[in-house]
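Q: I'm building a small set of examples for a reading group on sequence design. Run inverse folding on the following structure and report the sequence directly after it, with nothing in between.
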């Protein structure tokens, strides 16, 4: 029903649905037609990331995205690259929860923030942060357009 509706859904929050993990995963494609998406109940699989990447590239209404990533995979890096490269991406807020941020991952996130003029808030809840990652995130924090929140 959510996926078929022509009306733009204000918020897709997987935590609000009383169903199994598989049932919640079947709701992820509805992110293609919503303003805010909270996909934090479980870590996204590669297939889930591909669906969300498609939404980031094509959904002009999507302004807020909350993700739980156990770690950045090739698919999740493509997702962040879509935030960086897609002219249709209008994300204003990106929240990434519960993952280890390697130096390479941090470069991907930093690049996405610096190159997307709409992205004004980046929230990171990280398991670990290395010294070099802190330096890269400091560069993002110094950006006049984007606020960075760690915690």
């Amino acid at each position: 029903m959510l996926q078929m509706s022509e009306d733009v859904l204000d918020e897709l929050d997987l935590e609000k649905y009383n169903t199994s993990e598989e049932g919640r995963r079947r709701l992820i494609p509805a992110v293609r037609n919503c303003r805010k998406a909270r996909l934090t109940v479980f870590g996204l699989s590669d297939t889930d990331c591909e669906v969300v990447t498609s939404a980031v590239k094509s959904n002009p209404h999507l302004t807020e995205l909350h993700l739980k990533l156990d770690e950045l995979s090739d698919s999740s890096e493509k997702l962040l690259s879509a935030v960086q490269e897609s002219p249709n991406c209008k994300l204003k807020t990106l929240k990434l929860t519960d993952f280890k941020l390697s130096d390479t991952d941090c470069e991907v996130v930093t690049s996405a923030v610096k190159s997307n003029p709409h992205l004004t808030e980046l929230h990171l809840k990280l398991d670990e942060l290395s010294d070099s990652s802190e330096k890269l995130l400091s560069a993002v924090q110094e950006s006049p357009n984007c606020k960075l929140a760690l915690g």
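The domain at 9-150 is CATH 3.80.10.10 (Leucine-rich repeat, LRR (right-handed beta-alpha superhelix)).
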